[in-house]
TrEMBL record:
Family, similarity comment: Belongs to the methyltransferase superfamily. LCMT family.
Catalytic EC class: transferase
Entry keyword annotation includes Transferase: yes
Keyword Transmembrane helix in record: no
Residues noted as binding S-adenosyl-L-methionine in the record, renumbered to the chain: R85, G109, D184, L185, E212
Protein name: Leucine carboxyl methyltransferase 1
Organism: Emericellopsis atlantica
Length: 350
């Protein structure tokens, strides 16, 4: 039954903020606070997938408060979804970084995502310029955690904070540079020619803009304008977007009403209802190279090896095959490029 299935972002029945509960869309500020809370959901899901053996990520534990108890354990289908989404994005990002010469990543709504630590800890980054953007409250939280944690501090080196404290960065020498911006992405919509909103942004090197469940929270026009901000400035550009689709079927309706009960709306769900619409979205935004959108279900089937599936299945067992199919069919990973050929993307099974 679709109504008994949680979505990948959160668990069914989890309450929203007092301001938003039961009132559909909340007051804009309360809405922002609710959206910021989705980062905690993502961090808890990541740790659950690590704890249950799906993912290896020594950094995930630092971004979830322990409260003295064991980590929250998500349902097996949620863990599998987190695994598939994380490894798919890793694969697309790795392929992008595989190219020759210096590269830049811009992660929109990065939250307390750990990909940046995994990447810089792994080395072989050769001058990588890595930007993360999220609301100020989230970027400040990330800085506090990094500063207070010896393992993360070792990876990120010495941190410099901007005078107005909205932006922090770190020069990692030959390994590259890291920039974390406390910025509401909607400010990019009317940025005009201004370059100052994202200090350190390079416009002269191949860049990958990643939205792992972020642009879906913006109004469709705003989400398009954010992509256009980068598109208009950077010649060699790729993008990878992960977000839900198919709001119009029975499962999708439950998914959107669960979100609405928490005061969350996802405008792009209605604007780009299918994977094909997501491909069209990227083409219309000017990405004409390797444009592709695949559901999490298709990625699980085609990108995860049989050996890996066997390993993952042995972790907890997954009886809810039908529920998994439904859930995984409602999330999509879309990617595309312009002025840039990402060889590895052309070789992915589809
Ligand atoms: C579901 S979380 C995903 C976090 C991270 N990308 C991940 O996958 O683990 C969505 C993130 O997008 C951020 N976000 C949403 N709207 C934003 C906006 N207008 N400006 C900056 N960040 C935003 C939220 O604060 C939150 O951290």
């Amino acid at each position: 039954m679709p109504s008994s299935i949680p979505n990948l972002l959160t668990l069914r029945g989890r309450g929203g903020s007092r301001a938003s509960r039961g009132r559909g869309r909340a007051h804009p500020d309360a809405h922002d606070t609710t959206i910021q809370g989705t980062d905690t959901d993502a961090a808890v899901s990541r740790l659950s997938a690590v704890h249950c053996g799906y993912l290896t990520d020594p950094y995930a534990q630092f971004f979830v408060s322990a409260d003295g108890g064991p980590p929250t354990r998500r349902l097996p289908i949620i863990n599998r979804g987190t695994y598939t989404r994380t490894t798919a994005l890793d694969r697309l990002v790795d392929a992008f970084l595989d190219g020759r010469g210096q590269r830049q990543i811009v992660s929109l709504g990065a939250g307390t995502d750990t990909r940046v630590f995994r990447r810089f800890a792994r080395g072989e980054t050769e001058g990588l310029v890595y930007h993360e953007i999220d609301f100020e409250v989230i970027s400040q939280k990330k800085m506090r955690i990094v500063r207070g944690n010896p393992m993360l501090s070792r990876i990120m080196g010495e941190i410099t904070v901007s005078e107005d404290a909205t932006y922090w960065s770190s020069d990692l020498g030959t390994r590259g540079e890291y920039h974390c911006h406390g910025l509401d992405l909607r400010k990019l919509v009317d940025a005009g020619e201004s370059q100052a909103l994202i200090p350190g942004l390079r416009t002269d090197i191949p860049t990958l803009v990643v939205s792992e469940c972020c642009l879906c929270y913006l109004a469709t026009e705003q989400a398009a304008a954010v992509l256009a901000y980068f598109h208009n400035r950077i010649q060699s550009l790729g993008t990878v977007i992960y977000e839900p689709v198919l709001s119009h079927d029975a499962f999708g309706k439950v998914m959107t009403s669960n979100l609405a009960a928490r005061g969350i709306s996802m405008p792009t769900l209605d604007s780009y209802p299918t994977p094909t619409d997501q491909e069209k979205r990227l083409s219309e935004a000017g990405f004409h190279g390797s444009v592709k959108a695949m559901t999490v279900g298709d990625i699980w089937r085609r990108w995860v090896s049989e050996d890996e599936k066997t390993r993952l299945d042995s972790l907890e067992g997954l009886d809810e095959v039908e529920e998994w199919e439904l859930l995984a069919g409602h999330y999509v990973v879309a990617w595309g490029s312009k002025g840039l050929d990402v060889q590895g993307w052309n070789e992915l099974p589809n």
